Amino acid sequence: MSEAKSATRSLEFLLLGGTLLFYIAVTLLANRPDLIWDEGRYLWFAKNLTQGFYVTPEKPDLINGPGYPLVLAGLLLVKMPLLGLRLFNAVFMALAAWFSFRAVLPYAGKRWALGVALVSALHPSLVRTAPYLMSEALSIGCIAGFAWAFTAALRAEKARWSLVLAAAFALGWLTLSRVFFGNVIMASIGFLVLLLPFWKSQRGVLMRALAVLALAFVMCVPWLAYTKAKTGDTLCWSTNGGELLYWATSTHEGENGHWFSEEDAQNKPEIVANGHRDFYQANYYLPVKEREAALKKKALENIRANPKGVLKNWLSNWGRLIFGVPRSYQAEELITLVLVAVNGPLVLAVLIALWVGWRYRGTLPAEILILALMTFIYLGGTSLLPGLPRYTIIVWPWIGLGLATILSRHLKVSLSPPPLSSKFRFI
User: Fold this and answer.
1) d(CA 250, CA 227)
2) What are residue 425's DSSP bridge partners?
3) Distances (CA, A) of 7 to 2, 14, 21, 57
4) CA gap 249, 245 in Å, rounded
5) Which of 125, 87, 121, 127 is nearest to 101 (CA)?
6) DSSP state of 412
7) What are the two backbone dihedrals, phi and then psi, of residue 3, each rounded to the nearest 5 degrees?
8) pLDDT score for 346
9) 302-355 pLDDT, tens digit each
10) Is 356 exposed, middle or buried (0-12, 13-18, 19+ CB in 10 A)?
């Protein structure tokens, strides 16, 4: 092994081990005896799986897929305590950092790879959620693993089915954890099929990409069969789409598309005053299929009644996806300032990369363009529903890979003191 390869390998192990130890420490420091955020829901589903079922007649909602609960269920079967369950997320965060590094390295070199990996490992939204039973750590691990295996499979001279299967598994497990990616898979398949007659020079790459997407979809078929058995609907990824659309399109005074829980809708004075409690009491406790129909019907009525207000909600949602603001009837938190400081420069870098990438679009590898397509589909679809910064950061390995590929090739920065001057040059 050459000295350069040896140094890179050492850096990989340092990144993997350092991230693992960091999140073990953070989880130990943040540990608490009670459950917060979505922990109770994930743990409930996991306990159900250990008993051979997923939902009960009393609680029939299929809010999230079984990807993360399956991980927790395996740990519960060996009597893992709550702290042990939480500590397992450190493994996923370490893998996310490592796979991010591996994905970027062939396209942009060691420095860019390390930069993207460090964002994957240390972003404040992830440091905040990873110490708890939240699915972000597993999701970004799958996202990063998919980015590495997918790009490696597509740029290989000959088809390597080990990489195709690895990419499909990562995307499939991601989808079972964050079911919205089921829509990304279906939309991406549609776009790539449409590209086949026109992008003839990359037909082999497109076919490999379609194979990955198709296999990932097949991996999710048992879940879709389960949801169909419970709801009667084909291609039902979850049963809370209507609820999300309801809040995304609500344009009462003081609201901006921010989501509220069932408890908030019926107990928060400002929300009650806007009539949400009456609507919830009349419709929320109907059978799941009827409830979804009622919520979606109301969402369509909201759009027809106030399209400008719904557009404002959509624009506000981009603010929530990036910076966590604005939120309806809630005081802002200190984390907002942290997100502005971290995400602001990242957004600027992405905008520069988009501009440069468009100018030099003919030079970009096909697999990077396909991954960019999937990223746009995900972000565009997510923007239509109430969002949070943690929904955006999980696709950072895809965003960072594209950003690093473009800027490392076409943007040169030279610093030449004294006097200090900075020159940017596009090549």
Assistant:
1) 28
2) 412
3) 9, 10, 21, 56
4) 6
5) 121
6) E
7) -65, -40
8) 97
9) 999 999 999 999 999 999 999 999 988 887 788 899 999 999 999 999 999 999
10) middle
Nearest to 154 by CA among 392, 403, 401, 378: 401
- What are the b/e assignments for 18-45, b being 16+ CB within 10 Å? ebbebbbebbeeeeeeeeeebbebbbeb
**How many alpha carbons fall within 13 Å on the CB side of residue 90?**
21
Helix (H), strand (E) at residue 237: none
Tokens of 343: 């995400």
d(CA 395, CA 400): 9
Q: What is the mean pLDDT of residues 174-181?
A: 97
Task: List the structure tokens of 9.
Answer: 């390998």
Q: In the 8-state DSSP scheme, what is residue 200?
A: G
Quick one: which of 176, 184, 178, 181 has its CA closest to 221? 176
**Does residue 290 contact residue 238 with C-beta atoms inside 8 Å?**
no
Three-state DSSP at 271 gives helix
Q: What is the C-alpha to C-alpha distance for residues 62 and 164, in angstroms, rounded to an integer? A: 29
Is the CB of residue 59 less than 8 Å from the CB of residue 51?
no
On average, the pLDDT of the chain sits at 93
Beta strands (DSSP E) in 278-326 are none
Average pLDDT over residues 230-256: 93
Q: What is the arithmetic mean of pLDDT over 209-226? A: 98
Instruction: Say which amino acid occupies 245.
Output: L
Q: Could you give the CA distance from residue 383 to residue 96 in angstroms, rounded to a whole number?
A: 24
- 312 Cβ contact list (under 8 Å, min separation 6): 251, 256, 257
The first and second tokens of residue 376, run together, are 């746009």
Please state, in angstroms and rounded to a whole number, the distance separating the CA atoms of residues 388 and 238.
19
What is 102-135 written as a DSSP string? HHHHHHHHHHHHHHHHHHHHH-HHHHHHTTSS-T
pLDDT given at position 1:
62
Q: Reply yes or no on whether the pLDDT at 421 is more than 80.
A: no
Q: 117-175: per-residue pLDDT in tens?
A: 999 999 999 999 999 999 999 999 999 999 999 999 999 988 899 999 999 999 999 99
Q: Taking phi first (over 0 means left), then psi (-120 to 50 degrees means alpha), and beta for anything else, what does residue 259 get?
A: beta
Residues in the chain: 427
**Cα–Cα distance measured from residue 13 to residue 55, given in angstroms and rounded to the nearest whole number:** 41
* pLDDT of 418 over the 60 cut: no
